[in-house]
Amino acid sequence: MKAWMSLVIVTATMVPAVFPANSIGADDTVVVRDVVVEFAGKVDVPARQSGPVAELNARLNEWIGRDQVIAKLDDTALVIRRRAASLRYESARLMLNDYVEIQYAETALAEAQAELDDGQAASDRVSGAVARNQLRRMKLAVERAELELARAQKKRRQDEIDMQLRAADLAMIDHELKQLEFVSPIDGIVLNVHRELGEWAHEGEPLVTIADAAVLHLHALVDADRLDPSRCVGLPVTVHWSAETNTVARSSSSALNASAASVSEQTLQGKVISVDPTRLPGNRFRLHAEVQNRRHVGNRIPQQGEGNVADGWQLAPGMEVTMKIHCSEVDIARRKQRSGTELGR
């Protein structure tokens, strides 16, 4: 009975008091409770080609890493095309590496030039030893061999261009294959899966929506009498909320595990990034802050076949939080002056 009374007393002390939407904490802070927590950014991963979904590796609320392949369209036709293009490229590469024609033309030129040199030398030693017609044919044979060599060299340059074209065709098909993949541009959580396995995805339509859970935006309504909106941007903020954590206790008299819940205060640091120029009723304005979220490790009761560590994020959109805005020195001085004036009255 005493244990139950103690639990009731402890629980009662954890119930937060009710405060107005904006209140003054210390002289250097403004406490805001009208706060909405949202993801800083959401990304729709679109289909870059049209076709049926062949692979789907993303599930709702699953953590996705940057550059991770989350889905893929059917690539059967492109794989066949790539095989044919690869064979054509290999054939062009073999043709480029074949030096037989150039070597044959060089050999023929060397032979023709040698015959011409011998005939010319004989004619120089003994006039008329080699007929003029014969010398002319020898010279024409050398010119013909030179043209054959030039033609072989030109063909080799053409073979080199042909291989580059085949390589470009292969690269284009590889690019089209990459276009069939859905790759996450950010680290985040899957908020929505718009197509299921086997469904047709149209080019430009989103397949998966991913939110960046590492950065959160907080939107708050602040009383302009408490904080000057023209000096808000850049001010540091602290976000507070209460979170329940489960602890595992083992009874000394039995082998059963018992779970007890405790409430702990969680905080994140950030800064004000912008202020809406429009004033709202009640002399309030909307303020936007950004905080870097953190992953935490929470304990839970181990189940059979499971581990005892659960991974997650400290703060999630939709949670009730309190934000403390740390005022500038000008705002602190202004508030002290206003407090002194009110006391003087």
- Strand arrangement within the widest β-sheet reads 1-2-18-13-14-15-12-3
User: What is the strand content?
Assistant: 25-35%
The 3D shape can be described as elongated
Beginning-to-end CA distance, first to last residue: 55 Å
The helix/strand class is alpha+beta
**Mean pLDDT, as a whole number?**
80
- Sheet having the most strands: 8 strands, antiparallel
If you had to describe this structure to a student in words, what would you say it looks like?
The protein has 3 domains: 12-41 and 212-344, no CATH class; 42-73 and 183-210, RNA polymerase II/Efflux pump adaptor protein, barrel-sandwich hybrid domain (OB fold (Dihydrolipoamide Acetyltransferase, E2P), Beta Barrel); 76-179. The chain contains 5 helices and 18 strands. The strands form 4 sheets. The chain has an 8-stranded antiparallel sheet with strand order 1-2-18-13-14-15-12-3, with no helix packed on it. A 4-stranded antiparallel sheet has the order 4-11-9-6, with no helix packed on it. Strands 8-7-5-10 form a 4-stranded antiparallel sheet. It is elongated, with a radius of gyration of 40 Å. α3 (100-125) runs antiparallel to α4 (132-179). It is of the alpha+beta class. The protein has helices spanning 2-14, 76-96, 100-125, 132-179, 329-344, and strands at residues 22-24, 29-32, 35-39, 42-46, 51-56, 63-64, 69-73, 181-183, 188-193, 200-201, 206-211, 215-223, 236-250, 257-280, 284-292, 295-299, 309-313, 322-326.
